[in-house]
C-alpha cells in the first residue's frame, strides 16, 4: 500500500511539472534579425546609382538610412529608380527598373542573397504565388502588347517569361491567383488580368471601363481605384459588383484598413466606409508639398496610422510623414531621394 501511495505521489508531482512546463508555452519572442520589427521606405533615387537606398524605421522609432549598404558594404549596388519591394516568408525582393535586376535579401537581416537579372525589361511590381515570384514588365514602354511576367523559381532564381500582352502594372496574389492592373499612367488599358500560376496562363480579363491605378482585396472583394471611379469585383465570379462609385479626378493610392477605404487626391487624404455608396467631399487631412511630381509619391495605412512619402525634388533627401487616422500629424522623418513606398516587416 505504501508503494502504491508513493507511486501516486510521484505521478501527481510529475503532472505538476508537466503542467508548469505547458503553461509557459508562450516563450518570449525571438528576434529574427535586426529589421524584423518596423518598416522599410524605398527611396527610388534618380539616374545616379548612389541616390537609391532603403530606409528602416523601427517600431520603437529609430531610423537607419541606407540599410542595404550598411549591411552589405561589398555587394553591388541596388541599381537606380527602385520600384516597390515585395516579400515572401523570409526574403525581400528589391526591383530596379532601370538596371533590369532584382536584388534578393533576407527580409529580417537584410543580408544579400542573390541578384536576378535575366528575362527582365523595365520591371515594375512583384508578388509571390505557388512557390514562385512573378514580376510585371513594361517592355519598351511604347505599347502594352509586349508587356510580360517574369516567372522566378525561388529555389534557384532561374527565370522564364509568361505573356500578358496588355499594359501590366501592379500585381497582387489572392487565393493562389494573380491579379494585374492593366493601364495606369503608361497606357490606356481599362481592365484587370487574372493569371493562374498553376497553368502559367491568363485565366480571364475583367473589363472595368476605366483606367485602374491601385487595388486591394478585402473579404473576397477586389476594390479597384481609377482616376474618377471606384469599382468592386467579386473574386468568386470575377464580375464587377453594381455601378462604380464616382471619385474625384486624380484619385490614387487605394488602401483598406479597419473597414475603411483610404485614397489620395493631390495632397489630400480621403476616407470612407467600405460599404459606402457615395465618395466623401471633405478630406480627412491635407499636407503641404513643394514637389512638382512627387506629391503623395508613397502612401500606406497600417495599424492605425497613415504614412505619406513626398518625392521632393528627386535630387536630395526628402520626407515621410506619419499621421493618426483622425488626421493628426504624429511625426516627420527624413528619408532618402524619391521615397515611393512603405513596406511593413
Automatic annotation (TrEMBL):
Pfam families: DUF5074. Keywords: Signal. Gene3D superfamilies: YVTN repeat-like/Quinoprotein amine dehydrogenase. Residues 1-19 form the signal peptide. InterPro entries: DUF5074 (IPR031815), Host-pathogen_enzymatic-act (IPR051200), WD40/YVTN_repeat-like_dom_sf (IPR015943). The keyword Cell membrane does not apply. It comes from the Bacteria. This is YncE family protein. It comes from Flavobacterium microcysteis.
Amino acid at each position: 500500500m505504501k508503494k502504491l501511495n508513493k507511486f501516486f505521489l510521484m505521478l501527481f508531482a510529475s503532472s505538476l511539472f508537466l503542467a508548469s512546463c505547458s503553461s509557459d508555452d508562450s516563450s518570449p519572442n525571438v528576434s529574427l534579425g535586426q529589421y524584423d520589427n518596423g518598416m522599410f521606405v524605398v527611396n527610388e533615387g534618380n539616374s545616379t546609382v548612389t541616390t537609391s537606398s532603403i530606409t528602416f524605421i523601427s517600431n520603437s522609432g529609430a531610423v537607419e538610412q541606407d540599410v542595404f549598404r550598411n549591411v552589405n558594404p561589398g555587394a553591388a549596388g541596388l541599381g537606380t529608380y527602385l520600384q516597390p519591394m515585395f516579400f515572401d516568408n523570409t526574403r525581400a525582393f528589391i526591383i530596379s527598373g532601370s538596371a533590369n535586376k532584382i536584388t534578393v535579401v533576407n527580409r529580417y537581416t537584410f543580408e544579400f542573397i542573390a541578384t536576378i537579372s535575366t528575362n527582365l525589361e523595365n520591371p515594375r511590381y512583384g508578388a509571390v504565388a505557388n512557390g514562385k515570384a512573378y514580376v510585371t514588365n513594361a517592355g519598351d514602354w511604347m505599347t502594352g502588347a509586349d508587356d510580360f511576367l517574369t516567372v522566378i523559381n525561388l529555389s534557384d532564381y532561374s527565370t522564364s517569361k509568361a505573356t500578358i500582352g496588355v499594359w501590366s502594372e501592379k500585381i497582387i496574389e489572392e487565393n493562389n491567383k494573380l491579379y494585374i492592373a492593366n493601364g495606369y499612367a503608361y497606357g490606356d488599358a481599362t481592365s484587370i488580368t487574372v493569371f493562374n500560376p498553376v497553368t502559367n496562363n491568363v485565366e480571364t480579363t475583367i473589363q472595368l471601363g476605366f483606367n485602374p491605378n491601385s487595388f486591394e482585396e478585402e473579404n473576397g472583394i477586389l476594390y479597384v481605384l481609377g482616376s474618377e471611379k471606384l469599382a468592386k469585383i467579386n473574386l468568386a465570379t470575377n464580375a464587377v459588383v453594381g455601378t462604380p462609385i464616382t471619385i474625384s479626378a486624380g484619385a490614387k493610392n487605394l488602401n483598406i484598413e479597419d473597414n475603411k477605404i483610404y485614397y489620395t487626391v493631390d495632397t489630400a487624404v480621403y476616407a470612407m466606409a467600405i460599404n459606402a455608396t457615395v465618395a466623401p467631399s471633405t478630406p480627412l487631412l491635407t499636407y503641404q508639398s513643394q514637389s512638382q511630381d512627387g506629391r503623395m509619391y508613397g502612401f500606406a495605412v497600417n495599424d492605425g496610422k497613415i504614412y505619406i512619402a513626398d518625392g521632393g525634388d528627386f535630387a536630395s533627401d526628402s520626407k515621410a510623414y506619419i499621421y493618426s487616422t483622425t488626421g493628426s500629424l504624429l511625426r516627420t522623418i527624413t528619408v532618402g531621394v524619391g521615397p515611393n513606398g512603405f513596406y511593413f516587416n
